[in-house]
Amino acid sequence: MRLDDLDEVMEIERAVFPMPWSLSSYRYELTQNDKGYYLVARLKGEKAEGLLLGYGGFWLVQDEAHICTLAVRPGWRRKGLGELILISLLDWAVALGANVATLEVRISNRPAQKLYSKYGFKIVGRRKRYYANQEDALIMTAYGLTSPPFQG
User: Fold this and answer.
1) HEC string of 10-40?
2) Looking at the domain covering 3-151, what would its CATH class be?
3) Is the pTM of this model over 0.85?
């Protein structure tokens, strides 16, 4: 992700999250957070060449990658793009030395929970009233990212 991606990132952010990150938060992440890693997925081909379809990011602290955001443009969901972004984030985190990944997910976001479970994430806790609208978050963690089941 680059600064010139942020207009499209914010368009998706506002469309998919009830409480989106701010533009200044993303600017900070890209320019000042040396523990933050972000990527974007863009469309290839003739139709809408270069359209930003999704993005994701994580913070790396020692051997733990905390996935802090993952979003797919409305109209492009349920096509496997979120899964590809998740896999890319995990691969990148492992390449940087991560062996554990964590994230929070809205208790109401069953499709995301199902995707994360597919990749070894287990529910390890709950954050009460975590989101600004007072919705709880599930804490999910995947251990052993460098073990054979993850690398196979």
Assistant:
1) HHHHHHHCCCCCCHHHHHHHHHCCCCEEEEE
2) alpha beta
3) yes
